[in-house]
Amino acid sequence: MNGKAPKDLSQVPFALLGFLLAYVVLVWFLDVPFPYLLFALAGCVAYARREQLREKRAMKLIAKGKRAEAAKIYDSQIRRGVKLPSAYLNRAHMLMQDDNLPAAMELLQKGLTMEPDPLIEEHIYMTMGMCYWMQGDHDNALETFKGMTERYEKTDGQVTASLGYLYFIKEDYPTAKKWIKMALDEDKHVPIAWESMGQIHYRDGKHIKAEEAFKFAIALQHNMVDSHYHLGLIAEAKNDLERAREHFENAGICDISKMNTVTAEQVKEKLDKFLE
Asked: Which of 88-94's residues contact partners 24+ apart within 8 Å by CB, and which partners?
């Protein structure tokens, strides 16, 4: 969910609906000249456009590291009940980064009630699955991601890869392998798919294949804590202590959450051993 947010056109239907309601009331009942309604339509469209521009400004502020200013814009839109699902999605992302998961989930659920366009809807469901996962609610995370594979004809490889990772966490290894292979068949550039495959190989004692998979993962995305940690274990087993220390140090600077299989305590234990 990083990068440029998908364009949200959900405000436009509301503007048109407002125009049609105004047309019925003003022309049929109050006999207002039609040209006046054109001004009303222009006002509705201008309002929708203004809110989209505000959201765009908030995204630019986030890119500049000015999160507090961006949050004020989103909070204002949410407080005023602006029908812009992408604003709820983006604010939910910020709350997740602040570890305020219940508030993030509430915004995501509200965003779904606004009938977002399909692309925004898919992003909301994906984020909801991640939010459940970060809360340690693996069952609801699985249900959300599986629901996406049933709801949409084609989903992002991140969805199937996440299913594989979650089944690995739940120790349903055959099902985990099925989803991970499916993810890699769809897209070989999904880091979490390679990391999940690496963990399955590592569990099976296939350290050469595991090492290869973990290296693919960090080549695609460097801050993969589970990959660095397991590469450290593999290097340590080979007595390549310098390489092991390097991977454990890299693991130590990564963010660690309930979405990972490795814990901060495990990483700290290894760092203490190699730095003493």
From this structure: 88/114, 88/124, 89/5, 89/120, 89/123, 89/124, 89/127, 90/5, 90/55, 90/58, 90/59, 90/62, 92/127, 92/131, 93/1, 93/127, 94/62, 94/67, 94/70
Which CATH number, 1.25.40.10, 3.10.690.10, 2.40.30.110, 3.40.50.300, labels domain 156-276? Answer: 1.25.40.10
> Measured between alpha carbons, how far is 108 from 110 in angstroms, rounded to an integer?
5
Angle 38-113-117 from CA coordinates, rounded to 5°:
60
Are the C-beta atoms of 70 and 93 separated by less than 8 Å? Answer: no
DSSP calls for 78-90: HHTT---HHHHHH
Cα–Cα distance measured from residue 183 to residue 187, given in angstroms and rounded to the nearest whole number: 6
Same CATH topology for 1-144 and 156-276: the answer is: yes
Q: What is the largest CA-CA distance in the chain?
A: 88
Q: Could you write out the DSSP letters of every residue in 219-261?
A: HH-S--HHHHHHHHHHHHHTT-HHHHHHHHHHHHTS---TTSS
Dump pLDDT digits (tens) for 123-175: 999 999 999 999 999 999 999 999 999 999 888 889 999 999 999 999 999 99
CA atoms of 145 and 69, how far apart (whole Å): 32
pTM of the model: 0.76
Structural domain boundaries in the chain = 1-144, 156-276
Q: List CB contacts of 1: < 8 A, sequence separation 6 or more.
A: 93, 123, 126, 127, 130
Does the domain at residues 1-144 carry the CATH identifier 2.40.110.10? no
